[in-house]
Every structure is written in structure tokens, then in C-alpha cells.
Amino acid sequence: MNRAVSSFCRIDLPLDQALPLLHGEAPCTIELFCEAPHLDTNGDWRSQIKWLRQYAQTHGLTYALHAPCFDLNPASANAGVRAEVVRQYQVALSIAEALDARQMVVHSGPRSDPRLSVAQAREYVRAMLETLVPLAETNRVRLALENTGYGEASIITAPDDLLTLIADLPQQTVGLTLDLGHAVLQGIELGDAITAWMPRLVNVHLHDNRGISDEHLPPGAGIVPLGKALAVLASLKYTGSVVLESFLGGPRPISISDAWAGVIPVVDE
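Above: the chain's sequence. Below: its structure in C-alpha cell form.
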């Protein structure tokens, strides 16, 4: 397993202030979150590329990307929203290429309208991926589709749901991100998901919640069995990324080292 950190951990700070808080002396991958005040697909992101590349070189970092997701939904019933998702994801793929990032997380999304069938919502996500695959291949970026959405709006209720959705898409271009916190909210047993997804699993998001909402708490602050999940990953010799994606800001900020404290031994095995 390769330990990584999402810049979402300090989304409360501008990126130039957040980055130094996200890594230590050891080589690390930072999953850059494509939302203001970090990398904004609607802003002047090109002006950030040079210093981000220099920062990575100075500190021995590599980058991955998380596509924009605030108010965006690839499974939306609204065609205009879906078109905007594709546009912003295409910009994000250009950012990934400019930063030599070889992986980009994209969301699967929830149903935005109860009248929309789960099957149709999945078809919308599938269409988004088919549109992005050629550009992803050109830019040498692997898409990592994440399990998002929970409750009645969810289009994912079992591990096979996303596997079926991407089954005949090129494996070298489309993989899966297993978000452990989301999976608990979706009622998916983590060991089952890891085992089923292993051939396509390239990324794991690690954060906690109390089983009610997507809180992105630090490890150990909720009910998500992170240790069990990491043990299963280790037993199956998972070699992809494990990305800390807990929000660590607020009135009493938490350091990266403290957030990792309970899970580092397993992640580093």
C-alpha cells in the first residue's frame, strides 16, 4: 500500500498554506482536490502549475487529482448538469497532465430526482466515462471511479454495481476508488467490496463517520472499521494508494501525523 494525503484535509486553507501541513520528510503522494481554494477548474489554475511542480520536486512529492465535485453530479437527471460535469472533468484531466498526475478520482454520484431510475442514473455515469476515456488515454491518466451517494438517492448498494458499470471499459484507463466511509453509509461490507474490487481497485479513501452522514472525521472518531479494512487490503497484497481524506481543520486543527497515528502501522506494512 502507498500512503497518500488528500488536500481536502485542509480545504479551509489556500493551497500554498495547506500543502506544507500535508506531508513530512518521507516521499508522499498528495491527492489535489479540484475545488477552491485549492485547484479551481473555473479559475486561473495554469498560474499554479509551475510552483506546484517546483514544490513537488523540492519535497519529493508526486501528485494525484480529485476531480471537482461540489454541486456536480454525473448521475443528475439534468442534462445541463451532466454536461458541466464532463466539461469540468475534462479541464481537470488537463491539470493532471500538466502536473504529471497519473490518476484522477471521479464521482459516481447519486440520483438527483426520485423519479429517475437507478438504471438510468448508472447509464448517465457510464456515458460520462465513455466520453472521458479517450482524453484520459491521451493524457496518460487513469480514472478512478469512486462510490459516492448514500441513502435513498444512492445508485450503489452492492459491490457488483460499479464493477458492472465499468466492466468492458479498458482496465488500464478506468479503475475504482473505494471510499471506506461512503461504503459504510451505503451498507456495503468493506471486506466484500475490497475482495470483489481488487482487480480494479487502484485507490482507497480513508476517513471516519458515525454511520449517519458523510462527516470525513479523523480515523478513530467514528464507527468505520478502518483497521479491519486495511488488514484485508494487506492480506490481499494491495499495492495501490490509501489516501487520508479526513477534514483536519476547524477551531482545533489536527496534524497529519496525529490523524495517521492509529493506521500508519497497517498502511506501511
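The mean pLDDT is 95.
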